[in-house]
Amino acid sequence: MIVALVAAAVLVQDSATARLASTGDSVAVLDFATFHAQVRERHPVARQAELVEARATAEVMAARGPVWDPVLGAEWNRKAFQAKEYYNYLEAGLSLPTPIGVEFKLGYQKTRGANINPDRTTPDDGLWVAGVTIPVGQGLLTDARRNALAEARGLRDAAVADRQAQVNELLFAAARDYAAWYEAWRRRTVAREGVELALGSYRFVRSRFENGDAAAIDTIEAGLELQRRLVAQLEADNAWFVTSQVVSTYLWDERAVPYDLAPGVVPTLAGLAPMAADTTAIDGWLARALERHPDLLKVLARQRVAEANRRYYGQELLPDVMFDVAAIKDGATGPFSEWPGASDNYKFGLAGKTSLLLMKERGRFNAAGARVESAALEAAVVRRELRATVLASANEATTYQRIVETQRGAVAQARELRHGETRRFQEGESTLFLVNQRDRLLLEEAGKLAGFEAKYLAARAALAVALGGTLSEDGSVLPLAPPTR
């Protein structure tokens, strides 16, 4: 039984060594920076988030049209009966809206016929009309068109922030799974080292037993320890396989086609720059989060929409008064030739109306004011929560960084203890039990180091999300770019 166990252990170790050699394990490394960049640039969720922003930008363009886009129109109406032309109306014009609510117009009118309204009579060559429409009450500061544009911009900003939040969550999940993959890889390495140590101890005890220097019970103890280590290695291999499959789900090429990790590819934390843990750095992180975090930007965007609606509904409390004035000239010459004095050649119009009780208008205005106040309170809550989250995340990340540095020293000391105990055992001054204890201590400390390193990486990713940006390859934060107006 013991011989079969040793043979199985040797076979496992030899096959594992062969696999690592054939895949070039020292070269086939997927570092965190490369993995992080690939997920950010290629993952379908990140690409979908970009489409959300593109759609919101298109909505802003659509809302900008009524505010800026000139409109060219024409209308022709003619009626004839029993060879008699009753009327023939032709009217064409160009209107130029402006962001301040004033609208400029240039048009041409021509009428003829036996039964036309006298006020619509024009010279045989028609009339050129150049005028302006000015809102005097409602629409002076804002109107439905400008309010729609303000709403579209606010929704666009909210969409940009939401996109960044989605990408951040994706990258945080990816970093967390990469950390689990790294921990599984390190624990797998530790488990294999444990098998090698147990196998070496068994061979040494077996040799002493064959020479009559050790009891048979020692070979059983060494074999049992080897068996326990083999079971631990099988468990570590399974965890490594499972986490590798999870990491593969984040891998996509430039054409949005998924691909799997190549055999032998391993993770590493090499190249991840240490974090600055001083108060100045943390204060800078906090200031950035309170300025650029997607959750806060979404609330502020909704607040701007509410403020735009309040301004618009406030305008509705004023009388709806529209003033139209236009100069006119004979159509015999072009519209850009000299115009006659407007004192005798003009059109003028003034129209106005207002509700007496303003019930609907006052209700809308008060409701909009409540939404503005609610958004302001929500922003205050978000700022408060962000501050607590950033400070907690920064403390967690810096703490795990110090823990990792300390734990590496513990692993080095445990390895020295193991080497010393092994030398004493080989010289006959110790026992297999103590050697196994030193082995277990070394494996336990190495496993704890793997867990702390994984938690450190996950904590850095959590800090990046708390700051409202993404984790770059050097450990800094890539902030959200301000939206274009």
If you had to describe this structure to a student in words, what would you say it looks like?
With 485 residues, the chain is α+β, with helices and mostly antiparallel strands. 61% of the residues lie in helices and 15% in strands. The protein contains 9 helices and 10 strands. The protein has helices at 2-23, 32-42, 44-68, 144-210, 216-248, 279-292, 294-315, 359-426, 432-467, and strands spanning 29-31, 71-81, 84-97, 103-112, 127-135, 266-268, 320-330, 346-353, 470-471, 477-478. A hairpin with a 2-residue loop joins strand 2 and strand 3 (84-97). Helix 1 (2-23) crosses helix 4 and helix 4 runs antiparallel to helix 5. It is elongated, with a radius of gyration of 39 Å. The model is unreliable at 1-27 and 477-485 (pLDDT under 50).
Number of helices: 9
Q: Tell me the overall shape.
A: elongated
- What composes the largest sheet? 6 strands, antiparallel
Query: How large a portion of the residues is in β-strands, by DSSP E?
Result: 15-25%
Alpha-carbon distance between the termini? 77 Å
Taking pLDDT < 50 over at least 5 consecutive residues as the criterion, the unreliable ranges are 1-27, 477-485
Question: What is the β-strand count?
Answer: 10
Q: Helix share of residues?
A: 55-70%
Order of helices and strands: HEHHEEEEHHEHHEEHHEE
Q: Report the average pLDDT across residues.
A: 84
The helix-and-strand class reads alpha+beta
Question: C-alpha Rg, in Å?
Answer: 39 Å
Q: Order the strands across the largest sheet as they lie in space.
A: 2-3-4-5-7-8
Give structural attributes:
alpha+beta; six-stranded antiparallel beta sheet; 9 helices; 485 residues; disordered C terminus; disordered N terminus; elongated
